[in-house]
Known about the structure:
Elements (H helix, E strand, L loop, with lengths): L1 H46 L9 E5 L4 H9 L3 E4 L2 E4 L6 E3 L2 H9 L4 E6 L8 E2 L1 E2 L6 H6 L5 E9 L5 H10 L2 H9 L18 E7 L4 H14 L3 E7 L2 H10 L4 E4 L5 H4 L3 E15 L7 E2 L1 H8 L6 H5 L1
Parallel strand pairs: 1-4, 1-5, 7-13, 9-10, 9-11
Antiparallel strand pairs: 2-3, 5-12, 6-12, 8-11, 8-12
Amino acid sequence: MKMKKLIAALSMVSMLAVAVTGCGSSKDTSADASSDANADTKTEQSGSEWDSSNDITIVSREDGSGTRGAFIELFGIEEKNGDEKIDMTTEEAQITNSTSVMLTTVADNEYAIGYVSLGSLDDSVKAVKIDGAEATAENVKSGTYKVSRPFNIAVKEGLDNEVAKDFINFIMSEEGQSVVEENHYIAIDDVKPFEGTSPSGKAVIGGSSSVSPVMEKLIEAYNKLNPGAELELQTTDSTTGMTSAVDGSYDIGMASRELKDTELSEGLQATVIATDGIAVIMNKNSSVDNLSSEQVKSIYTGEALTWDEVIE
């Protein structure tokens, strides 16, 4: 009997020992799982951080774009070969054919860099400082932000379209220039109140996609004063704007740059309707907030390939 009791006691002790060991294993497994979960969270957080070792995605505009022409000139991304200027933009650059596509492309890529008209800038991307100056209309006007260019319209000498002429008078009036200023561009000084003649008929305006947004606002404002006029806006590029003004396809051509000597020699008369900055843009997740002019040049000529080559 005593032996049976001893065996039973020993069995009980063994069962308790196993139970205690099992509880200990369960506790350790739970702690390990918690530790692994924390590690995974840290890995995910680390993965979401902007990494300067990544390649730079360079985004540029198409040939013929006035914004591209002004950009490469202002940042020295061109070389002179006699009277010819050679665009040195790297062949690795992605090419976009409009301001809206440029904004979307940069907004969708954390390591992208691009450029747009300051007046077209929206909150889908961020504009970086250039040489320490913020890209604002006030800084363009004061000369602190030096990356700027004129917005031009051009007509063929001897223009006889009364609607086009009246519309140009509106653009260059106090009322027209207030529209320019309201849309974050630099207005022309010393303008007078509009004195229109309210002609009826149609005029075609076309060219630069950078000038197009403010031109659309100018057309809306003019139509309120002269509903009998039909103004058709075609958004293409600066070069097309000038060639189409020469051949008569457009009554008014738009260019987001100075006119070339060859264009002026073909009988075009240019008028500056506003001054615009060019904003260098990056994805909002980027850690880069300030670039020098030389850094921008090194990126667009392909000298710098990764972000840590630029910012470190």
